[in-house]
């Protein structure tokens, strides 16, 4: 099949990483366009050229005559098109619901270090970030993890039940990986409270479909994206 074009900013995993994991684990051919030579300029040109159904922001996926934006929407498309989600409508909507819940926590994780405005540097909002981080660590992370744990208690090995992972499982892995990087003390303190979530993380990390990717340079390190480690924002 003709490879998809994945457009997302180079240099950070960001929201594009949730899409990459699905493409890689699903064995779906794609080009990471912004990581090619001149990619930063190319992504700006491509976005400006898309007058019909223009993306608001990366990531967006182009292929088969369509352009699909928003991470959860891209994964909904890939899930149905490439068997990365249940075949029945109820199952697909359930996986999409989980993905949207993951997206909520991803947004909150970002807003810890940028609670006032994205256009301001972290140093311009450190006081507000410290206050936001305490609330996030103590209330929001446990609230979400408890829900994921509850889902797994009911469903079993994977978030949608059954014997095979879906894109939501890959995304929960990425969420947990990012939180472990950004809040290592807090996540270590919480680890024993959510054993099924921890085991799912380990299960995805060991998937044969992801072995080569996770150990390759294509797997970008964390840094200035959504998940950032500021020691002053972390505590057990």
How is the secondary structure organized here?
Elements (H helix, E strand, L loop, with lengths): L3 E4 L8 H10 L4 E3 L6 H11 L10 E4 L2 E4 L1 H11 L7 H25 L12 H30 L11 H16 L1 H7 L4 H11 L5 H4 L22
Parallel strand pairs: 1-2
Antiparallel strand pairs: 1-3, 3-4
Helix pairs in contact: 1-3, 1-6, 3-4, 4-5, 4-6, 6-7, 6-8
Structural summary, described in words:
Strands 2-1-3-4 form a 4-stranded mixed beta sheet, with helices on one face. It has 2 domains: 4-82, Glutaredoxin, CATH 3.40.30; 89-207, Up-down Bundle (Glutathione S-transferase Yfyf (Class Pi), Chain A, domain 2). Helices cover 53% and strands 6% of the residues. The chain has helices at 16-25, 39-49, 71-81, 89-113, 126-155, 167-182, 184-190, 195-205, 211-214, and strands at 4-7, 30-32, 60-63, 66-69. It starts with a strand and ends in a 22-residue tail after the last helix. By secondary structure, the chain is α+β, with helices and mostly antiparallel strands. Helix 1 (16-25) crosses helix 6 (167-182) and helix 3 packs antiparallel against helix 4 (89-113). It is built from 9 helices and 4 strands. Strand 1, helix 1 (16-25) and strand 2 form a beta-alpha-beta unit.
**What would you say the CATH architecture of the largest domain is?**
Up-down Bundle
The major β-sheet equals: 4 strands, mixed
- SSE string: EHEHEEHHHHHHH
Structural class: alpha+beta
User: Using DSSP, what is the number of strands?
Assistant: 4
Strand content: 5-15%
| Structural domain count | 2
Distance between the termini: 48 Å
> What is the CATH class of the largest domain?
Mainly Alpha
CATH fold label of the largest domain: Glutathione S-transferase Yfyf (Class Pi), Chain A, domain 2
* Unreliable spans: none
GO molecular function: glutathione transferase activity
Protein name: Glutathione S-transferase
Organism: Bordetella genomosp. 8
Keywords: Transferase
